[in-house]
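= Paired protein data =
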Amino acid sequence: MYPFARVPSKGLVGSLMNLPLKPAELGLKWVLSSAELAKASQTYLNGVCSYYFDFMSPYWVALNSFQRTETTKLVKHQPHETARDYLELLHFNMEIARKGMLSTMRSMNQFHAREMQRRQSAWINTLFDREGEDIAEHAERLSHLVKLLTVEYPKAIRDIEPHFGFHFDDGGYVKAAETDRFTLYQVLPWKGCTAVRPNGKPVLVIPPYVLGASILGFLPGENKSYTHCFANQGIPTYIRIMKDIHSSPAVQTMTGEDDCLDMKRFCEVIRERHGKPVTLNGFCQGGFVAALNLMSGELDGLVDAFITCVAPMDGTRSRALVEYLEHIPPRFRDLGYAGKTLPNGNRIVDGKVMSWVYKLKSMEREAPIFTYYRDLTMFNRPDMENIKITPTAAALNYWLIYERNDLPIGITQLSFDSYTKPVSSDGTLPVQLFGRPLNFKRIQEKGIKWLLCYAEDDDLVDRDAALAPADFIALEVSVFPKGHGAIATSWSLPTSECALHRRFKAGYRGPVRYQLDLDGLTDGFT
């Protein structure tokens, strides 16, 4: 009468004997499940520790710089001022930790709640011999999931290195010039897919400093490379590559003026080779530095067109980062806290610490355990056994993990000032070169055409920060979907929706299309 009534005469053993699955089989599945879960737990801990220590590695550099800088500042401040500043810094750190902990707990709860439901279903399937995942299969799936993320995913990321970015010794590039700080390379069409037009209008690409040049040569073999998008159309394409900062003292001590004079030298070489003025093309921080060079007057007569992509022209308009900086006590808004001393005594800025700042700014999305569970969820799909880690995913993560360059203090100071001091009401920037004021209006006065590209969902360079020049001068704007790196990754594929050599959406021109039009080539040219 009562289907769940206890069987008094048989006890637990008798109840188990009435289940569809015999105790021996049930025991075997339990043992197999326990063994797989034990293995998964070890792999899980390895993965969590790896994510955590990768995130925290810049902390030790920052801590050393903090101690060094504070040794000097302590004697310059009254004890009560130091106590106040340290309490404010503690509050700031606690707020960051709170954001990271809340997002981490949410992601952990969501993941484990789903897995607990699946585990319960697996037990019921096992006990009553039902169709579906049993406890052994569930444990095996979890073990495979954490192994996929902790072992196979990092391996795929490391293995993509030969295919990612620029490899200037593979025959696809020609060294055109060099200085003590930079090397100028001509980027040839990929595998001879077309011929360079010697009399074509040349373009000089300026990569960002901290993010490195490799993102602009993302996966040329997969037809995803920003610079090859130009070269593959027969455009004379050049890229400026900074020399290794650790082996080049001239790079370590480089100033904005040094950057500008080297840029001038390269533009002279390119104009002489092709007989036409250069199109200067800066990506992210490279666009900001290139704009400063143009406004200095040193490139007059050498450059007649300008392209910027996701470039921060007035950093104070980046709301999220500025809000983050405003919460830091004024005493600690100092590049000295991100610096490190080289064996020769020169001080430089640690690129990992600089990129760490952006992670701290978005701690709710960048906390190490949160990102581990985010990636677990990404791989936790029904077709997990057939998941293939694509070259694009591997290359993007290789860039995020390994491509962080240390920077000269002089160059970093220019960007730092642009994020802490706004452009004035007449368009004058808060920095100078050669002791000269720099104003956006000068670019228009010299007749230089400007295509400004920004990304709709960019969480690194806000729309307003990129569009600041539009308040002062007339220029053309192209708006790309997705985030900060999409122009160099997603949209560099010629068959993509917003291919760089075509018009897209509301008539926006991609950078390559813009360059082709400047050279008088029709829209039908591909």
